[in-house]
Fold each of these.
Amino acid sequence: MAEDLKEIYEKKLNLDEIEVEGKLVFVRVDYNVPLDDNGSITDDTRIVGSLPTVRYLLEHKARIILASHLGRPKDKPTLALSLKPVAIRLGELLGQEIIFTNDCIGEEVAATKKKVQPGQIILLENLRFHSGETKNNEQFIAELAAGIDIFVNDAFGTSHRDQSSMTGIPRHVPVSVTGFLVKREIDHFLDLMSAPQKPFVAILGGAKVSDKIKIIQKLLERVDTILIGGGMAYTFLKALKYEVGNSLVEPERLDVAQGLMDEAKDLGIEFLLPVDNVVAKKTDDEVKTSIVRNENIPSSWMALDIGPETVRLYSDKIRKAKTVFWNGPMGVFEKEQFQGGTLAIAKAVAECKGKSVVGGGDSVAAINMFGLEKKITHLSTGGGASLEFIQGILLPGITVLSDRT
Ligand code: AMP
């Protein structure tokens, strides 16, 4: 991580450094929660994640407005993507009434903003019911920002997006700060990329190498060991001339994969690939599976998880690490028969006594699925945002915030 990047982030004002009493405070939260077919919230982690900031504002008698997007409503009101169920859940968690408005701009919102008292909370309807949110429409931004004294970014997962509620509003209000959730994310990732304790082990999985090339390159500047799993492992193995059957391979990335392995070797970094694999003809529930070493992957079969010997090898490295970063599952973990590798790695990360950071939707989902969330130092709320952070890309939703003077 370039030092200037660290300097830019560390200069940003945080919520606990400003006076909020009586002020109209607009908090951009991330309430993009999963819903089932009946519109019930299946996981309220994101709502719970916003509570430290919301409670702080309540205790300090701010007049609070919360806003978020939910899903992809295609620029028009969509009943199934209403934030109303979130207002109910938030009200239950806080034990107080949430004033819910049926739109995020317009007369009802303007009138409610005027009436809201210190210690009261308004939740606006889904920001993406208007095209203005993703299109940075100035009129839309001006309406959202009208009357607001303070803007708080507490939506880390959307901080890599240059959109109205993230980067537009801060340009119209006197002070913009990080909320507690965003501050925590920044601190953990800055620590990970600027002063990691050694040995630093990075575990990368998921489907494709192409999505992870830049991350691997950046991590090579910092880590001692890289452990590769998931579909992306087979492009590396293919580059090493293994016959990988019908496993996922990106033929146009073979050179890049070889280049990354060469770079790791030049830098003296351990770059490990699976040594054995769980293979099957397809991913069906009833399909027969087998465990084979790399040189024995049958021609019409696919490698869909890392095997037990790889698990042992990787777990040993992870347990001995002082810093671990994990992104991406080790196999097709959505299916029980290809879940073992991801589960074992999740357990090893949980057992690691050093600092553990897990980023990316699927690896976080795996940690939650296995009930290991309390054993991880930091579970990031932002998949895309955390990967961009590690690559050293400045997140526009954070850079736009006010600097400490
Ligand atoms: P990503 O979004 O890149 O983190 O990839 C996550 C997806 O990769 C998950 O849906 C997994 O099912 C899939 N995946 C993991 N391992 C494999 C594999 N060996 N073959 C095919 N897909 C995989």
Note: The mean pLDDT is 95.
Amino acid sequence: MNLYIVATPIGNLRDISLRALDILKDVDFVLCEDTRVSRVLLEKYQIKTPTISYFQHSKVSKVRKIISLLEEGKDLALISDAGTPGISDPGNKLIDQLLKDLGDEIKIIPIPGASAVISALSISGLRTDKYVFYGFLPHKKGKETILKEIIGNKFTSVFYESTHRIIKTLNKLQELDLKKKVVVARELTKKFETVYRGDIEQVLNQLNNDTTKGEFVVVIG
Ligand code: SAM
């Protein structure tokens, strides 16, 4: 009764471990956040394991089905659309429920690999011994409070941001008088990978002269 939590690439499809490929081939079912997205990866590596969709708001009946498969002795792997499951992605809620229902009988096994937060921290040049990861910031209510917390944070702060909000969020940080070093990592491991570094004004200037399409991680020193 094993559930493998398998990290998949955050862009470049070659960023997957040999062990991850073995596990995805060997398990009875792969739980996918979005089966259409995962098909690209699974087809590239000729993985024919049947898939089951599982996302954060999957119905209770889906969780029941997963539990009964595990009780039958099946091995499962969970993957998300990109990166490490459970990191701003589905996973935690399912694991919590499985531990409640199955206790020590179930083994939850990590298969480590890519994650955008760690990739961005690793190239940031900022302190990484103590950092606070905020995931996605709230859209409206509470956002300013968190941005102020980030400004006052004595540790490095890191968060995920979308194409639509990156400029708005950075503008807000400038308005709130952020004085720290900023690193914005865009489209890591992909064709248009770009890293913007500097103070908030320099980073905003660079971004305003560039396209702001893509996926972003913001690291603040
Ligand atoms: N579980 C994933 C992980 O381990 O990185 C994160 C999933 S979260 C739903 C998606 C967000 O992660 C994106 O909106 C973006 O902020 C960040 N992200 C994912 N891939 C990225 C990449 N290649 N470059 C920069 N940021 C990325």
Note: The radius of gyration is 19 Å.
Amino acid sequence: MGIGMTSAATRQRLVRRLADEGIRDPRVLAAIGEVPRHRFVDEALSSRAYEDSALPIGRGQTISQPFVVALMTEAVLSAVRPSRVLEIGTGSGYQAAVLAQVADRVFTTERIGELLRTARQRFHELGLHNILTRHVDGLAGWPGQAPFDAIVVTAGGEIPSALFAQLADGGVLVGPEQHGAHQELIRVTRSGDDFEREQLGAVTFVPLRQGLE
Ligand code: SAH
């Protein structure tokens, strides 16, 4: 593997590209510049880690596209100062690592044990000690750690009401909602018992599934 393809300079090109595509928040751009995305994919794919595309991570799952990771992180930061963030769908661990740069603590859940073990190893190697992981069906959230300032759902489907109930007052949920064959990224803001819904554009995520593997 040529070192040039995974260098900090290569990562800065990705940051500039995301800025050109409309990501404005300097905290988000700094977080993308900080996290070595090549460490979140198989070595055979590391030369492609700083392209703005989703990549396979095994078990039929994908690491999200950097633009979408940036967009979701920006959607959180423009609404709250996130102390506690819950993620549904650890996958490679990349989105959690980006969130860990801008939040005090990240709680991330994954239903496929094999993916979670690999992600945990990466968090350990990169010294990301503010990420807590759990091998559970994330459709139930993480009631023991609720409420959360932000909940980020990184698989597409019908977002369960259990998650909205675990939002702090003023908190936001960002995630893809399934509408027939299409997915729409939404942000839902809680004010007391009111939930305000905004649409942030079309996205493509792997599906939310039930149960553990
Ligand atoms: N955030 C990840 C994206 C991974 S793809 C990253 O940055 O790499 C989405 C992940 O959600 C997959 O790993 C999939 O197994 C997981 N997933 C799907 N349904 C889930 C559920 N009910 N609970 C927890 N994880 C789930």
Note: The first strand starts at residue 55 and ends at 58.
Amino acid sequence: MTLLDDLGGSAAERWDPEHEATAEPAFTGPVIELRDLTRTFPGDPPVHALRATDLRVERGEYVSVIGPSGSGKSTLLHMLGLLDRPTTGDYLLDGVPTGTLPERDRAALRGGRIGFVFQSFHLLAQRSVLDNVLLATLYSGVPRSERRDRALAALDRVGLSHRLDFLPTVLSGGERQRVAVARAVIASPHVLLADEPTGNLDSATSEGVLDLFDELHRDGLTLVVITHDDAVSARAQRRVRIADGVLTEVG
Ligand code: ADP
Ligand code: MG
């Protein structure tokens, strides 16, 4: 059984609008489409963190974005995650133009369609492993009756069933990141966004997290992994380089 099966259905089933309000047909275009998007931070001089960016990520793709510190990686991830708005240009998520949506609608899209994994895990220190994963279902459209079973299944799949009641503070870095991955996929997101997911892990532990990403990709999940690490980037099916706010395909 695959991880996404554990979480309630095959990849294809998950993309049906089954837990969305409308019955419109599932969108089959790119999950992510940036059109001539820029992000400039005001200042003297202004910082052009993203310059005239076009990017399409198709359903089921595993894309890495590699670039040095300061090249615009986090800015890009914040954009893709609807945590920031473009200065100019458009971002379509599942074909929905997001730039002018009110914050409430952006939050709903974020909660229902995007999973996040961050370098520093961002787990709630005072909550158990199980609660950390369960809390991610609150604004995600996962029916209440399914939440606990899905959290248990997700944690089982990342190998942490024996740590349900532990606080994140007593876990190893690799275990913390596996909790974060379970949390990121429990709501069956349309895309998983990871920002330097192995940045705080040793190389052996990193391998385990990257193996998990491979497995999610095989199950049909769309992944965008942002990294400065060539070995991490090389694990993706498609590689994009970012330098000084400009994206170019590698290879
Ligand atoms: P990376 O993640 O690749 O290290 P960032 O996307 O964080 O790069 O930053 C890209 C550029 O934008 C850097 O020059 C950074 O200093 C600048 N930057 C990022 N966030 C802000 C901000 N909130 N205000 C001003 N400048 C910023
Ligand atoms: Mg960064």
Note: Residues 5-23 have pLDDT under 50 and may be disordered.
